[in-house]
Specification:
Blueprint (H helix, E strand, L loop, with lengths): L2 H74 L7 H69 L1
Amino acid sequence: MDPLTMMALVALFTGTGLAISGQHKEAQDRSAAEKYNAQLAEQQAGDVAESGRLEEERLKREKKRLMSRQKSLYAHAGVNPLEGSPLEVMADSAAAMEMDIAANRYNTQAGVNRYVGEANYRRWMAKNVKSQAPLSMGSTLLTAGSGMAGILR
């Protein structure tokens, strides 16, 4: 085998080794990044849940204050707040506040679901990246084999 052919083969093997090593390292790094992003999404889901819980508590306190204030104002005006129109107004106010609380629960759960879904997707991506690496490295080896066949012709 002449020296030029030998140098070409050495360069081909070296380049192939470096390419495979780089593909392996890239898969590890991308997998680690996806796992980290999954953890962040889980933390965000927890933050959304806690924020929603605090907002629900605030809305319930606001509802209680509103009901007490309405009752007090009706009583101060000499109207019985537990019958007739005042009762209907208070019932409507309570229903409106309950709708706000329900909307908060819905929005909170939607936010939590979004981040949990993202975390699951990121974990899937972390596994997928690792499982695709051998295919990519195998392709590189096949390409190198083809190059070697061309050199040795």
